[in-house]
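Input chain follows. Return structure tokens only.
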Amino acid sequence: MTITTPPSGTGSGAAPSGELVVIGRIPRAAAIAAAVAVVVNVIIRAIGVGPLDVSSDFDPLSSVGAAVISTILGVVGGAVVLWLLARSTAQPLRNFWFVAGAVLLFSLLGPVSLGSEPGGDATSVTVLIAMHLATATIVVGVFTALTRE
């Protein structure tokens, strides 16, 4: 297992306690985060298209497959970002939290912009936003818990 070390020129050369990331743990954390996020998002989608009656015309929620693929791509993207930060920064987790927050905010533009699409009412947009929030929360939580030294 490889443990990150602070890049040269970062001052004292020691990362704050709990900031070291075991790079070898990232794939396992990503697999667990993906599995949990997929299950949660499938449940959120089922509530949306079931009791909340989201229109079948709303493309992002029209199939389970689209939700699964989008979720997995988001988790893989997060794993790549954490890996890059772990190799290049003294505080990879802290930096990951900031990047994840910024990416989450940016990702919410998608659902909001889809409000004018066929089937894109307030309920469908809210369900899609809930899926984004759930995935981000799961990824940050699982990556922080399972990759920290």
